[in-house]
Specification:
Blueprint: H1 2-7, H2 14-37, H3 39-46, H4 50-66, H5 68-78, H6 80-98, H7 104-118, H8 121-132, H9 138-167, H10 169-180, H11 184-187, H12 211-215, H13 218-247, H14 253-283, H15 288-309, H16 315-332, H17 335-344, H18 349-360, H19 362-377, H20 383-391, H21 393-403
Helix pairs in contact: 2-6, 2-8, 2-9, 2-10, 2-13, 4-7, 4-19, 5-6, 5-18, 6-7, 6-8, 6-10, 8-17, 8-18, 9-10, 9-14, 13-14, 13-17, 13-18, 13-19, 13-21, 14-15, 14-16, 15-16, 15-20, 15-21, 19-20
């Protein structure tokens, strides 16, 4: 008996794994958010217009978005651990090298490389959770993940803003990129359960789920539309809030960092609470559909109102709206990836999230660029950009609450030929 126990592989505990994944996304969002924190300094150093800055933001999302599905398929082939580790190395190095960039084309190239590294994060995280975390703990797991990527901008903006105010933007990119590489050390020690393709009722491995089967699911398109709308607003805030506070509201770098980081921290705490609350509801036999859809509907309703109000209200009420938006978004954030984990299952979730996250991240390409164009066209006014960021939430309400059906596992057709 002792020999049998000794021969069994010792897998990393599920919540330790979740903690490491959350840490990777924490680092991920710090590294991608540094550009926004240093936007005013970088734009001044390189003489960038708002349109040029928007193009710089879009360069990241171009590779990040278009490679979502290929990376989901690569995770199925190579394994999520290996793909996530490689992505972390790439995005850390691209952040570090940004500190040495001296021309606009170099920054464009490094942002593209950053997107290449970071595009693996959510597809691999979703499959790792679906395979290694018990269903009753999926809500909390996604809350921890949400806390990780939501608190990243809070810490990154505060520390980065203070550091940039004293040292400039280049040393911050170099330091953050070098520190990011340290995460790879504990990740290399993780021991994972085998990643199945598709399990039948007896737990036997069957054929993989075909991409065609996934694309025929109404739930995929409802979630993708909702994801698209939610990200349009979130990415606009993430990319333009620091510059808006400094240029339109007259904040200095430290004031901006304090306000923005406080807003992002509220977002992160709300995400952690939201994931815990959903887990409790599911554990008590409550409706998973309502537990997921109600916070999503609330988030889009609040986003619609607050984005329209922020550019026209006095600064005090502007900040109240900002904080309200961040709390509502945080409460809904665990559902973005929890829904495909629950619906698609281990055998399909990487490809599902690859498609959903690809569609959901197109705002990073078109929205970031379009917002810069609108700001330049308005002579530096942010009103129209906020207006668009608010109205797009109508589509989010329709996607999550109307098109997305009941949230329950799909019984996949095992006879289908996999794509």
């Amino acid at each position: 008996m002792p020999t049998e126990l000794a021969s069994r592989p010792r897998y990393t505990r599920p919540m330790v794994l979740v903690g490491l994944i959350g840490a990777s996304l924490f680092i991920n969002y710090i590294d991608r958010g540094n550009l926004a924190t240093g936007a005013k300094q970088i734009s001044s150093d390189l003489n960038l217009s708002a349109t040029a800055y928007g193009t710089l933001l879009s360069a990241f999302y171009f590779s990040y978005t278009l490679l979502q599905l290929p990376m989901g398929m690569l995770a199925d082939r190579w394994g999520s651990k290996r793909v996530l580790g490689l992505g972390a190395v790439i995005w850390s190095l691209s952040t570090l090298l940004t500190g040495f960039a001296t021309t606009y084309p170099q920054l464009i190239g490094l942002r593209f490389l950053l997107g290449l590294g970071e595009c693996v994060a959510f597809t691999t995280a979703s499959k790792l959770i679906a395979v290694n975390v018990p269903r009753e703990r999926v809500g909390l797991a996604n809350g921890i993940i949400g806390f990780g990527y939501m608190v990243g901008p809070a810490v990154g903006t505060l520390l980065g803003g203070v550091m940039m105010a004293s040292w400039g933007w280049r040393p911050v990119f170099i330091a953050f990129g070098a520190l990011s590489l340290l995460w790879v050390v504990p990740w290399s020690q993780v021991r994972l359960r085998p990643e199945p393709l598709l399990l039948d009722a007896a737990g036997d491995v069957e054929v993989p789920v075909g991409l065609g089967q996934i694309l025929r699911q109404r739930a995929l398109w409802g979630a993708s539309i909702g994801h698209f709308a939610g990200n349009w607003t979130w990415y606009f805030v993430l990319g333009y809030l620091p510059m808006y506070l400094e240029k339109a509201r007259g904040f200095d770098k430290v004031q901006m960092a304090e306000v923005a980081s406080a807003a992002y921290l509220l977002n992160a705490l709300a995400a952690l609470f939201g994931g815990w609350a959903i887990g409790r509801i599911m554990a008590r036999g409550g409706s998973t559909t309502l537990a997921c859809k109600v916070p999503l509907a609330l988030a889009h309703g609040v986003a619609l109102v607050t984005m329209l109000a922020i550019p026209v209200l006095p600064i005090g009420w502007c900040l109240v709206c900002l904080f309200a938006y961040e709390v509502a978004l945080g409460l809904s954030s665990p559902q973005y990836f929890m829904i495909p984990q629950l619906i698609a299952g281990p055998g399909a979730v990487a490809r599902w999230v690859g498609v959903q996250n690809m569609i959901g991240n197109f705002p990073g390409i078109i929205g970031m660029f379009f917002a810069g164009v609108l700001i330049d066209a308005g002579g530096g006014s942010y009103f129209t950009a906020f207006l668009v960021a608010g109205l797009v939430n109508v589509a989010g309400l329709i996607g999550w609450t109307v098109i997305l059906p009941r949230i329950e596992p799909i019984v996949w057709d095992k006879r289908a030929v996999p794509a």
